[in-house]
Design goal:
single chain, mainly alpha, MetI-like fold, disordered C terminus
Length: 298
């Protein structure tokens, strides 16, 4: 038997130029995105002497030091702040989805009484906000001030998430829901066994949105919390950067080995973004799908 030669698709000259151009363009974009990240990490590991010698632009330090990280970890309530941030993010994501998904499923039903009025109410609350003082008074009336639950309760439902779930549920073929009705399934069973499995990408995308918001938030701690044991890591880092600690950091240390406020700021940025940076690649496709679902009705 003659060995069959594999058919190769030959690209035209214009197609080859197009592919090369796209490859070069994506490489440039990748470099532009990576260099700032490398710069932040490099500067966080650079001593004062090397910064001065290299004109405050270091990507790969010759003699890396970890003084900035050591100062943040040992000189602040770092581990308790990380515990609060991680616990807040986990519970905050769960709280953001526990009402958002069922409510989005309910308002997607066209036979829901007063459906238009309910949706109008949701949209108004999304556009208009009571402001800081009414929110503070509300948290005070709910006895949530200076407690961990002030981070969780305000995020129990999200109007944007409700609209995303609503749009996705409306895109589920009617034949699937009709077959479930013929089998005698109630609305709760249809939500659990039909809607939620199909909603998985959108749910994960909304969970990622909520996780980023909870992890990066420090303003809520500044306004509603006075107990330092309840401060999240972002607020601890924010207070650290606002303090004039340069004299304490640089005393009795060799000039070349000591850190600077610049290296401490960069180390704070690395610590703040590292957890989200590690999680995001695994949820990227759901993030993109959630953005698409929220903007275009399928």
């Amino acid at each position: 038997m003659k060995k069959q030669s594999s058919n190769k698709i030959k690209m035209s000259r214009s197609e080859l130029i197009y592919q090369i151009s796209i490859g070069v363009l994506m490489t440039i974009v990748m470099i532009v995105c990576i260099i700032p990240l490398l710069y932040v990490v490099g500067m966080s590991l650079t001593s004062e002497g090397e910064m001065i010698a290299r004109n405050y632009f270091v990507i790969f330090p010759r003699k890396p030091i970890f003084s900035a990280y050591e100062y943040i970890i040992t000189g602040t309530n770092f581990f308790n702040g990380m515990k609060i941030s991680v616990l807040r993010t986990i519970l905050g994501v769960a709280a953001a989805l526990v009402l958002t998904v069922p409510v989005g499923y309910i308002v997607a039903k066209k036979d829901l009484p007063f459906r238009s009025g309910i949706m109008l109410f949701f949209i108004i609350t999304m556009i208009l906000n009571g402001g800081l003082i009414p929110n503070y008074l509300l948290m005070n009336k709910l006895h949530l001030l200076n407690s961990f639950w002030v981070y969780i309760v305000p995020g129990l439902a999200n109007t944007y998430g409700i609209l995303v779930i609503k749009l996705f549920v409306e895109g589920i073929p009617n034949d699937i829901m009709d077959s479930a009705d013929l089998d005698g399934a109630c609305e709760l069973q249809k939500l659990r066994y039909i809607a939620i499995p199909l909603l998985k990408p959108s749910i994960l995308a909304l969970g990622l949105f909520a996780a980023v918001i909870h992890w990066n938030d420090w303003f809520g701690a500044m306004v509603y919390v006075r107990d330092s044991n309840l401060y999240p890591i972002q607020y601890i880092i924010r207070n650290l950067l606002n303090q004039n600690t340069s004299g304490d950091m640089m005393s009795n240390v060799n000039t070349y080995a000591k850190m600077t406020t610049q290296s401490m700021k960069m180390a704070s940025v690395v610590i703040a973004v590292l957890p989200i940076l590690c999680i995001y690649p695994f949820l990227q496709k759901y993030f993109i799908h959630g953005m698409y679902t929220g903007s275009v009705k399928e």
